Amino acid sequence: MEQTVASHNLKDNVTTIEKSLFTNNDYFSITTLYSKSQGYVSGNKNLFANMDYTPLTKFILKETLKGTPLIKLGSGDLKVMIIAGVHGNELPPQNAALMLINKLQNLHLNGTVYIIPFAAPEATMYNIRNYNGQDINRSSMIKGSLGNLIIDKIKDLGITYVADFHSTALNANPGKEGVFCTIKPSPKSFDIASFISEDTNSSIINYNNAGTMFKGAIEDECNLIGIPAVTCEVISSIGRVSLGSTKRSLNQMISFLKYCNIL
Ligand SMILES: [Zn+2]
To answer: What is the pTM assigned to this prediction?
Structure first.
């Protein structure tokens, strides 16, 4: 366990948080991207035990009962997206995404940040990799798949850059801290990966052409349609939050936002 939260019994002030969040409608909004993926994310004990359980976190967790949440922070034409939980049992990025939302809520952003903290709440709840028997990150070229709906949303919103955050066990593939990218057809994918890898001391894992090594990955599908994207990996045991892994994933997210000039 990375961090033991002394108390999870914060006062139930979700209503207050909802009111304060929506006072400035332009700055924060939360919608449901897909409802069939709903799940009780708090039921994932390994994730829940490591959370910084703020009222905002509690509010977002409640939203996962409706499906895949999409959070929008900031405003402006520069639009970027951060995704976590594409593999439900890769916990550090999902925890980091919650921390990031809490952090960004109080900052001035030079643009709009869309965050999907739990791509498939149901898979997160069960602490399993796949959603509905399907690997989201190998099926996003299939119409109607959850991955494909995420790609459609990215297109509809006019997102400029996308980063998808994962974790990997030491004995798995890639088994090291790194940033996946491809030079063709979106060379900026390589630029983003170079920036994050230098900034966070992780390796670049570059493939020349999107969609050749991995088919149906969110990153590859974005790069193929000309939206520069990367996949960031931190080391952690699968289904658990290894020591320091949330912080490292959060650092990769912040680095991505720095590259995009959002921060
Ligand atoms: Zn993964």
So the answer is: 0.92
